[in-house]
Amino acid sequence: MKIEPKELRVKKWKDVKAVRVKYNRAAELAVRTAQALKDGDTIHALLSGNFIFGDFLEALAVENCVKFKGMTLSTLAMSDENVISLENLLASGLLGHLDLIVSSYFWSHNRHNAAFIYETLCDPFGTRLAVAGIHTKIAMIETDKSKLVIHGSANMRSSRTIEAITIEANPDLYDFHKSWHDMILEDYAVTRKERRASNLWDLIGDTTNE
Question: Which residue, 10, 39, 177, 182, has most beta carbons within 10 Å?
Answer without folding.
Answer: 177
